Amino acid sequence: MGLRDRSNSKHGPKQEVERGFFAMKKQEETANRPDNTAFTQQRLPAWQPMLSAGIVIPGFVIIGIAFIGIGVALFVTSQNIQVLERDYTGVEKDSPCFKCTSSEAKNCVCTINFSLSQLFEGPVFFYYGLSNYYQSYRRYAVSRDADQLSGDVSHFKAPDSSCTPYEYSQSLPIVPCGSVANSMFNDSFKLYQVVSGQRKEVPFDSKGIAWWTDYNIKYHNPIYNGSLKDAFTGTVKPPNWPKPAYELDTQDPANNGFHNQDFLVWMRAAALPDFRKLYRRITEGDYAKGLPAGNYSLDISYNYPVLPFDGRKKVVLSNVSWMGGKNQFLGIAYLVIGSLCVVMSLVMLIVYAKFKFPEDDS
Length: 362
What we know:
The protein is an alpha+beta fold. Helices cover 35% and strands 18% of the residues. The protein contains 11 helices and 12 strands. A 4-stranded antiparallel sheet has the order 1-12-4-9. A hairpin with a 2-residue loop joins strand 7 (188-195) and strand 8. The chain is flat and about 105 Å long. The protein starts with a helix and ends with a helix.
């Protein structure tokens, strides 16, 4: 009897521990259990459509007709957009810009003549285009100092290492540093209308050609006690720049530094190797409604080298519509998808009529 009592006393504490463990575990499970509501217990009423031939086939027809209508509108609108392109790389010997491709040519200006048979409706956008130019190359795209470009003067003296090899020049920091800024496009253009043998300059509008977010949020000129030039004291311009950042536009003081419109347009990297960037708009004076039919000449200050990497340069005149610039692909894509939807609806109708109608009749 005494042995049995000792045996019971020996196993009693173990059973108590086990009971306490299970009780604690049950308490934890109860504490972690979601509230007994329709939302937490996933008992909310739900609706699931029952797809039948009477719903799917008309749906495909409606979607197809809608897409075809949108595609026709986009395609017709794109066809009505006027575009004029002229290559001025100067590779061909009969090109007026061939003389400017020589390494010995300095401050070379070439002229391209063209004519318009009808009014080139405004507003007219003037672009420059580059080919075989990979701005999306990773090491090139990251070669900039974001803090420097946001106007942080402390980064003027100590540029970010990502700007290498355009970080320092002659032991002085480069501002703005990096490959993107150093390779800024620097050809310039002047357009003239030839009237009775006389050249009449077509005014260019350079205001607001950059993205609003770039001008107002991403890029800022340094805040400095004095002129903008004082903020760049102790720094040097990028090696390929003819002038420092604070002298990019001598006619408009507000269009200098990191708020220069041409600089902002260039710093927004293109995704594809063949791209064009906005240079100017033609919206003023006698050309507010567009470029009248007639003869024109374009003077080009040829400075930007593209032959070393087998690139090409061109100028593009274009207008826009409610859908943007000329883009036939978008209209064709809508037409193809819409046609496929209509064809698939006919196929489904034939299959349904063949395999379902007899059963319904019985």
